[in-house]
Structures are given as structure tokens and as C-alpha cells.
Specification:
This protein folds into two domains: 255 residues, Rossmann fold (3-Layer(aba) Sandwich), CATH 3.40.50; 105 residues, no CATH class. 40% of the residues lie in helices and 14% in strands. The chain has 14 helices and twelve strands. A hairpin with a 2-residue loop joins strand 9 and strand 10. Helix 4 packs across helix 14 and helix 6 packs across helix 11.
């Protein structure tokens, strides 16, 4: 059967109808877009949030499968999910309601479950503790249209504190690794809220020469396309135990490359020989740090992005103006102790902070950190405690750390 011919006048009619429909659709679309521009204030954009495994993974698992996760959602007592404009934040809070309050802040790659034993130690001493997953880690969502800088992290601190049914207007602050740098940052702006500040294997004073050329090329050169950077970072931060053969692993501050071990400064500092294999908790000895980091890489779609943005923008490396500001705050507290007419100043009443370091930590090098902390804060502004171990000390030596902090409180805050 041949193709049926169509009269030219009918073709003209159909073309006219088509043009009419197209014109109507174009006008309607333009009207819709114009209305959106009018209704939406200039400069306002839709918030982009990458959900955590809480909403992406957990609903697909059975109860039994959930319990076998490296980081199950009920790994710590008193868990709650706090909805915020930046996404949901996982918070844990438990202990006597009238106890001394302690807020803990974890590192760049290990979620807050890594400080769970430390939280239990303080509760055993009668404290009320609160821990939370930083944005893009654990069960906290990842805002994907924001830079992971001081503004985002300080905002998260405040959101977490405000989420409690109890008053957290004064509290003790304990930060580990990245969390230590963030705690210094928070204390700079809200010193009146912080009764005492303890930094465990804290970043913020890491000397820049530890960053090798590979890290500079990957994180800050701008020479590589962003999609490729994310692929390489994903491989880079996966712990060795979770890596395919021949792929190097990394640790809590994965971009730090230490010259302590290799002269060319191109090896990833992995927090010490035992960091990746350290049990995350004495209550769960078969779960290692590496298994939890690997779980985040695989199941938290915002983890790699949050890690990368944090390396680029958070207070990790020296020099840090936050520490200079902290020096002035501590100095003013010490002066107020001798100037009775000035009256007491709330917060940091000891006029000094406590720094706990690992003897063999290749990420936060003990001797360098002590020298730099004393130069910036002054000998009167910092008390140093050195414990055996590497970058994993808050996980592996939680009891000794809790006792060290308690002794500092008795000595300076009683």
C-alpha cells in the first residue's frame, strides 16, 4: 500500500493549529517562569540537602540487618534526630540531668560513635553528655549547596545545643582532631558558654609543610575537574582494610602527609599503625574504625563532598587566627582573677585550656603542637598531657582521657 497523499489546504490547516498550540505553550511557560521570578526573592535559591543513611539506607534494611551495621542508629543512648534548615542532625544525650554538662565533637572522618566510650566514661563520673554527628557524617544529612567552613559548623553547634530539653547555657567542651579545631573556633565566638575547653589530638596547628604535593594538587590546585577530584578523594579516604589491593588508605585528617615516615612527604598519615584497626568501642570490639569509615563512603552520599569541603575550608592547618583570639580571651580571664573590681567573667574561668596528645601521633605531631600551642597561648594558657598511643587515643584510651580531664577540672575549676 502506497503513502496516501494529503491535500495542501489540510496541511496548511494542521500547520496553523501546530503554530497556535506552540504559541500558547510558549506564552504559558513564559508566564509561569515570570510568576516564579516575581514570587521568588532575588538571590534566593533552593536549598540542596543530601540525606544521610537514616533515610536512604535504613528503610531498606530488616531489623536484624540494622543491628549488624558498623554504626547502628541506636549505638549510643538518648538518640534523636533534629530537623534543621541545613538538614537533619543526629544527636545523642544521656546522663544525670543535673550533672556537669559536656559536649563532644568528633573528627573529620569518624562519626560521633567514635567518642561513645568517652561519653560513657564521663556519665560514669556523674556528667550529662551530648554528642552529635557533624554534617555529612554518620546519620546527619549533608547540605550540598554550602561551604563546610566556620559559619556552617558554628551554626551546627548552636542548633545542637538548642535541641536539648535542658539548659546548655554553660558546658564543658571536648573536641577530637577536626573537632578540636572546631571547638577553638566556637570558643572564640562564644567563650561565655564554655566552662572548660579540652582538645584531644586536635588539629588547627598542623604545620603546612606536612601537606605534600599530591594533597595540594588534589584539594587546592584547581587543575583537576571536580568530578575527578571526588572520585580520587573517595578512593583516598577509604581505609586500607576496605581498599582493593594496591590502593593506599588514609585517616582522620586524610590530607596530612607526614615527612616523619617517608622523606618525600607523600605518604598518607594514618593516625598511627593502629588507627584503622582500632575497635570503635569496648562494647563492640569487632567493629573497627576502618569499617565505619568505609560504611560512610559507601552509604552516605554526602560524606565525600563534606570531607572534601572541610579539608578545603575548615580550621585544620596553621596559622589560625582563632587561636590568637583564644589567647586574648584566656589572658582576660586570668587578669580578672586578680582584678576584683572588674568582677567575674563567665566562661573559661581557669584562664587556660587542656591539650591531650598522643606520644606517637603522626597526624598531630606532639613536639610541634606543644611548641606552637605554648607560643600562641602562652605557658600560662595551656596545660599539656601526653598519653601513649597515636591518633586513636580518644577511642583506645577513653578511661585515661576522662581521668585526665577530671583532674584538670579539680585543679582549676573547683
Amino acid at each position: 500500500m502506497g503513502i496516501t497523499s494529503i491535500p495542501s489546504d489540510l496541511l496548511g490547516t494542521r500547520a496553523g493549529i501546530f503554530r497556535s498550540v506552540l504559541l500558547t505553550a510558549t506564552v504559558a511557560t513564559a508566564t509561569y517562569l515570570a510568576a516564579g521570578l516575581v514570587l521568588q526573592p532575588k538571590g534566593v535559591k533552593k536549598q540542596l540537602i543530601t540525606p544521610s543513611p537514616r533515610t536512604r539506607t535504613l528503610p531498606t534494611l530488616s531489623e536484624e540487618e540494622t543491628l549488624t551495621l558498623p554504626y547502628p542508629p541506636d549505638a549510643l543512648p538518648g538518640g534523636r534526630d533534629v530537623e534543621t534548615p541545613y538538614g537533619s542532625i543526629r544527636v545523642y544525650e544521656w546522663g544525670p540531668e543535673d550533672g556537669e554538662r559536656v559536649l563532644f565533637v568528633h573528627g573529620i572522618s569518624t562519626p560521633t560513635v567514635s567518642l561513645g566510650d568517652l561519653g560513657h566514661e564521663f556519665v560514669g563520673k556523674g556528667c550529662r553528655v551530648m554528642l552529635f554527628d557533624l554534617f555529612g557524617r554518620g546519620y546527619s544529612d549533608a547540605p550540598s549547596d554550602l561551604v563546610y567552613d566556620e559559619r556552617l559548623y558554628v551554626a551546627q553547634f548552636l542548633l545542637v545545643l538548642a535541641s536539648s530539653k535542658l539548659s546548655w547555657t554553660t558546658f564543658n567542651l571536648v573536641g577530637y582532631s577536626l573537632g578540636g579545631g572546631l571547638c577553638v573556633l566556637f570558643t572564640r565566638y562564644f567563650p561565655h558558654l564554655v566552662s572548660s575547653l579540652t582538645l584531644v589530638a586536635s588539629c588547627g596547628l598542623i604545620r603546612p609543610y606536612h601537606v605534600g604535593w599530591k594533597s595540594r594538587l588534589l584539594y587546592n590546585s584547581g587543575l583537576l575537574p571536580e568530578f575527578l577530584v571526588k572520585i580520587l578523594v573517595r578512593r583516598r579516604i577509604r581505609p586500607k582494610a576496605e581498599q582493593p589491593a594496591g590502593v593506599a588508605g588514609s585517616a582522620d585528617i586524610a590530607s596530612v602527609e607526614t615527612k616523619k615516615h617517608l622523606p618525600n612527604g607523600d605518604s598518607d598519615a594514618n593516625g598511627g599503625a593502629g588507627f584503622d584497626s582500632t575497635s570503635i568501642s569496648k562494647f563492640r570490639p569487632k567493629v573497627t574504625v576502618s569499617s565505619i569509615v568505609g560504611w560512610q563512603v559507601d552509604h552516605h552520599d554526602g560524606f565525600v563532598m563534606a570531607f572534601l569541603s572541610t579539608i578545603r575550608n575548615a580550621p585544620i592547618y596553621a596559622p589560625q587566627q582563632d587561636w590568637v583570639a583564644l589567647h586574648k580571651i584566656l589572658e582576660s580571664r586570668r587578669r580578672s582573677e586578680h582584678d576584683k573590681e572588674a568582677g567575674p567573667i563567665s566562661g573559661l574561668r581557669a584562664g587556660k585550656i587542656l591539650m591531650i596528645l598522643g606520644e606517637d601521633d603522626p597526624v598531630v605531631v606532639k613536639d610541634e603542637t606543644i611548641e606552637d600551642a605554648q607560643n600562641i597561648l602562652g605557658y600560662d594558657g595551656v596545660e599539656i598531657a601526653v598519653l601513649p598511643g597515636g591518633h586513636e587515643i580518644p577511642i583506645s584510651a577513653s578511661s585515661r582521657i576522662a581521668s585526665t580531664v577530671e583532674a584538670f577540672w579539680r585543679k582549676h575549676l573547683a
